[in-house]
Write a structure and sequence with these properties.
The protein has 70 residues and is an all-alpha fold. Helix content is 73%, strand content 0%.
Length: 70
């Protein structure tokens, strides 16, 4: 579960940084890195799934069970 959480957070950071670059400089880092390989849509889908998981883990369960110290 912790690996899923770390992967999700990493994907959310990638998505957030990419949207920041698009908004500020009209530069799409994901497309620049993966565009030539046709993987851009897969990365976007993974970022979207990570957002859904993040909403569930942090909003729907009242607290994140992975982040909360035991």
């Amino acid at each position: 579960m912790k690996a899923l959480h770390i992967t999700t957070m990493t994907l959310l950071w990638v998505g957030g940084i990419n949207w920041g670059l698009v908004g500020l400089f009209n530069f799409n880092l994901v497309d620049t890195i993966f565009g030539g390989f046709g993987l851009t849509n897969i990365v976007y889908i993974l970022v979207g799934l990570a957002a859904v998981y993040g909403i569930y883990a942090h909003m729907m369960t009242d607290e994140c069970r992975v982040c909360k110290p035991k």
